[in-house]
Amino acid sequence: MSVSAELDLLAGVPGQLFIGGRWVDGEQGGTIPVHDPSTGAVIKEIADATPADGVRALDAAVAAQESWAATAPRARAELLRRAFDLLVERREEFALLMTLEMGKPLAEARGEVNYGAEFLRWFSEEAPRIHGRYGLNPEGTGRMVVSQRPVGPCYLVTPWNFPLAMATRKIAPALAAGCTSVVKPATLTPLTTLAFAALLEEVGLPAGVVNVVTSSSASRLSAPIIADPRLRKLSFTGSTEVGVRLMEQAAKGVLRVSMELGGNAPFVVFDDADLDKAVEGAMLAKFRNIGQACTAANRFIVHESVAEAFAAKVQERISAFKVGRGTEDGVTIGPLVDDNQVHATDELVQDAIGKGARAVLGGAPIAGEGTFYAPTLLTDVTPDARLLREEIFGPVLAITTFSTEDEAVALANGTEYGLVSYVFTEDLARGHRMIDRLDTGMMGLNTGLVSNAAAPFGGVKMSGMGREGSFEGIHEYLDTKYTLIPVS
Length: 488
Ligand code: NAD
Hints:
Blueprint: H1 3-12, E1 17-19, E2 22-24, E3 31-35, E4 42-47, H2 51-70, H3 73-89, H4 91-102, H5 106-126, E5 133-136, E6 142-150, E7 154-157, H6 165-177, E8 181-184, H7 191-202, E9 210-212, H8 218-227, E10 233-237, H9 240-252, E11 256-260, E12 265-269, H10 275-287, E13 297-303, H11 307-319, H12 339-354, E14 358-361, E15 376-379, E16 396-402, H13 405-413, E17 417-418, E18 420-424, H14 428-437, E19 442-445, E20 460-461, E21 464-465, H15 470-475, E22 478-486
Parallel strand pairs: 7-8, 7-10, 8-9, 10-11, 12-13, 12-18, 13-16, 15-16, 18-19
Antiparallel strand pairs: 1-2, 3-4, 5-6, 6-22, 11-21, 14-15, 17-20
Helix pairs in contact: 2-8, 3-5, 3-6, 4-5, 5-6, 10-11
The protein binds nicotinamide-adenine-dinucleotide.
């Protein structure tokens, strides 16, 4: 990819706030730098919204709500479909933009464009299928009509790790359901969402239906929006810590909330597993997005009789990784998103090593330009290692062992999180037992990748509440209304 192609692309991305169908500066005119994590260079300055700007965005969403809710479902669907088509057509531009602001390898960024676009297609198909019920009450005296109404203006807050898909996974069902929104992308990776807003504008989004605000202080910007009684829904994807804080704020207004929070996925390999399949799954579940995924396998819980063979196979695969800038050919591991992520990853790795784990590969940041961390393989991780309980957002594969199925289940469930689990076994009955016994909202049985726009994505316990995608996804943006009509 040539430098001039990158510069042209970045120049075309709007750097302002998108409020009421117009691109505007923040009221105080401040800007925030956006960096390329592979070089540390500032690639663009974007507008820094004040709390008053945030409320202006909500004003616009509130003003547009009634007419958007009254827009025919088919018209809402067609807008989403046009957005899907155009996004697919612009796959390369969006992929490059994500790689530049977030660091993931281009091949993965292309995959995210496909995945993110699918939410537009899926919810374009759901918009005309919002159904209700109708029936006589048991007494025979009244007709009961159950209908679905859009919840109203929404505040959609997204993280930096999947800059496109986390946005479309919220914006598409909101649009399909007839809700307007204020979107706040992560400060580290706002460009993809701004470019997506411009794409929505291009395909005919009415003014105010989606508004985008970016800010250097997410908490100051968000507080008055969440406290505003006109807001009816908060959908958040990010860390459990921030999610809990926002739920407390949302409780005051009794807002509908959807929370997609942190994960700490167990990856269980039984002695009857197909090891090659397990290794393939491990590469996806661990190293996709440079390990910075809520669905990333955090703890490899491997039967003691196959642990050595599994470690040897993953060691061979990790040794073949190519670390570098995501735009370069063949790169499989890009930089972590920033210095904080490098420090947080290293802290957990050093803690594990200090407590007895063996660093077979990696185990340290890579010196020089950019925020790179060496792909790491840790074996003999001891039960007191912090990374068995805390989410590690980096390319670190940590192996611990078990001997009985009950022990594997106890280890897998021994976390406050419950987003996803991965299980590898060739024993069908055992696989079914694991579906019942593992406390996670999702599970991959002999696969390391579960995400799909047609699947209900979400967690239990401290990993959140609500589901995104699938049939469930649109109901997060709909309220049920019951009406009684006397028979005579
Ligand atoms: P984060 O919680 O720091 O930030 C998420 C979003 O919240 C960002 O837009 C940020 O600007 C905003 N924010 C931060 N503090 C805020 C505050 N006090 N008030 C209002 N908004 C605030 O998370 P992150 O570091 O961007 O993302 C990584 C986390 O997200 C990980 O824990 C990961 O597991 C989680 N995640 C979960 C899912 C899921 O679907 N469950 C998907 C992706 C990421």
